Amino acid sequence: MTLRPHEQPDEQPGGRGRNRAEKRQRLMAAAEAAFAAKGFQGAGVAEIAAAAGVVPANLYRYFAAKEEMVAAIVQAQRGEIAALLQAAEAADPAPMAALLHFLEAVTRQALAPEMRALWLEVLAEGARNDRVAALLREDDRQLCAAFAQLLARAVPGCDAMGLARQLIALM
């Protein structure tokens, strides 16, 4: 498709939504980097917007407040963990092997320095903010349930939910 000089790519059918999703992803990546480096309280909206290549006023078209960025980070992490679990099960249908694949993937992700710093900030914000705390509790509940299902298949007869809680606490 050839664009006429007055047309912008996001004016094409489906383009606006794709452009919006890309900008939202850039904002989330910039927020993650800023929160990891400066903390939630130290990271400014203008700094996040500039790093994402948008003007600060446009940031509010995607997130009403910094709190919503933290919520989006928690929700994205939930999706990433679910994808890691599915990938582990797809990599090896044997339950114990799938469990080991999952633990390896989660550990690799958790050991990344930027992830450690980011999640310390997210957890700290959860201690200050009831909405973020509720999202973190729901995230833990869903992760624990999915992990327990995998554990129940890998270690038949175990207290899968209890073991899942213990292993998650160690992560």
Parts with pLDDT < 50 across at least 5 consecutive residues: 1-13
- Assembly type of the chains comes to single chain
Cα gyration radius (Å): 19 Å
**What is the H/E string?**
HHHHHHHH
| Straight-line distance between termini | 49 Å
Determine the structural class based on helices, strands and strand pairing.
Answer: mainly alpha
What does this structure look like?
With 171 residues, this protein is mainly α. 81% of the residues lie in helices and 0% in strands. It is built from 8 helices and no strands. Helix 1 crosses helix 6 (113-128), helix 5 packs antiparallel against helix 7 (130-154) and helix 6 packs across helix 7 (130-154). It is elongated, with a radius of gyration of 19 Å. Residues 1-13 have low confidence and may be disordered.
Explain briefly what this protein structure is:
Helix content is 81%, strand content 0%.
Main attributes of the structure:
8 helices, disordered N terminus, 81% helix, 0% strand, mainly alpha, 171 residues
Walk me through the topology.
Elements: H1 15-42, H2 45-52, H3 56-62, H4 66-91, H5 95-111, H6 113-128, H7 130-154, H8 160-170
Helix pairs in contact: 1-2, 1-4, 1-6, 4-5, 4-7, 5-7, 6-7, 7-8
